[in-house]
Amino acid sequence: MGLLALALAPVAFIFTYVYLMDKHEREPLLYLIISYVLGILSAFPVVYIGEKMQLLTGVTDSSSPLELLVYAFVVVALTEEGMKYLVLRLYAYPQKEFDEPYDGIMYGVAVSLGFASIENVLYVFGSTGSEVQTGIVRMFTAVPAHAMFGVMMGYHVGKAKFLTTSRRTLEHLIGLGTAVLFHGLYDYFLFLGQAYFIPLAIFILILGIRLARKAMEEHQENSPHKYEEEEL
After folding, report:
1. What CA–CA distance (Å, rounded) separates 192 from 182?
2. Is the pLDDT reported for residue 61 higher than 90?
3. What was the pLDDT predicted at 227?
4. Which residues of 196-229 are buried (b: 16+ CB within 10 A; e: fewer)?
5. Between these two residues, 145 and 24, which has the higher pLDDT value?
6. Chain-centroid distance, C-alpha 189
7. What mean pLDDT value characterizes the chain?
8. Mutual angle of helices 165-191 and 198-221, in 10-degree steps
């Protein structure tokens, strides 16, 4: 139970933080929980697709930097973020409660943290002899990274819903592309396996978190519910 709590504690903390950042009209918890559960379930097709793509590309831990680049961006980042995007687009996006841009961020984070939960539990329990160390390291790296990817994707999907039809597709593509870019770069520097690349991965993480925070503040500042409250 202690290890399970360690694996899920950062998920609960980040979810609560992003939820409380919504100052004007928070999403129903039921819909967020469903998004979270769908994020967990999305991990299963990701594993299947990832294994098939890994066999197709033939990449291994000893592959060349170029092959690892393909692995990081296509096999890992695109499959994971692509599946999260499908959940966000097909479940959350059509909901009538999705009525302001920040909702894209909230649902995006819920889906991403669902995926991060099952991934983190598997990593922590699979790290025989170093479970606590793995849990602590991932508490400050992988879990916030997944949340950050969710914010970036959700920021643009949230914008898309309230734009004209001609611009919606572009915003959706930018959202997915940004999440894949940051995810791919972060993983690539880690996959290279050299100690001097670790600071680059940390830089990508910190930069992404700063941009995610800015995106959250922007959608809060421009929330239509904010102006409704001011009128009242």
Report:
1. 16
2. no
3. 60
4. eeeebbeebbeebeebbeebbeebbeebebeeee
5. 145
6. 18
7. 91
8. 150
Structure tokens at 39: 């994020």
Residue in 15, 216, 10, 9 with CA at minimum distance from that of residue 111: 15
Asked if residue 57 has pLDDT above 60, the reply is: yes
Give Cα separations from 184 to 81, 122, 154, 177 (angstroms): 10, 21, 18, 10
